[in-house]
Amino acid sequence: MKVAFGCDHAGFGLKEAVVSTLKRLGAEVLDFGTHSGDSVDYPDFGERVGKAVASGEADLGVVICGTGIGISIAANKVPGVRAALCHDVYSARMSRAHNNANVLALGARVIGPGLAEAIVEAWLGTEFEGGRHADRVAKIEHLEQERVQEAPRS
Ligand code: RB5
Question: What is the model's pTM?
């Protein structure tokens, strides 16, 4: 299982805990940065992780910024990405089981490393249930396709 990882400077403090948890759970981590606490722009990292997941380079992705909001919005702009911002274990589990979320977003200024590790473990350990949930996710994909087809061609 390959997991793309990305964070901004505000998410950097949680990076070590999350990356080591991913590795402990057997994931191969593709590290898209950032690599220090120097100020960077969260959309760049949401984009890198989103594109890695959407292209199939990675199976799943984890992104972190201060709140998790900005970087999840950015990742969700990449067609094929379903990024879920989760700050509790139940939501993390449901985002996989019902929404087939392929990117997990966390806010390093919202939760600490202990909860982040529990969320990552629950998220990675839950499978998509399919069935009626697959039909609903297909409707999301349909919306996305409409947007892609409407986009002006360059
Ligand atoms: C950076 O200061 C902060 O705005 C960013 O990490 C994130 O929280 C944005 O949504």
Answer: 0.95
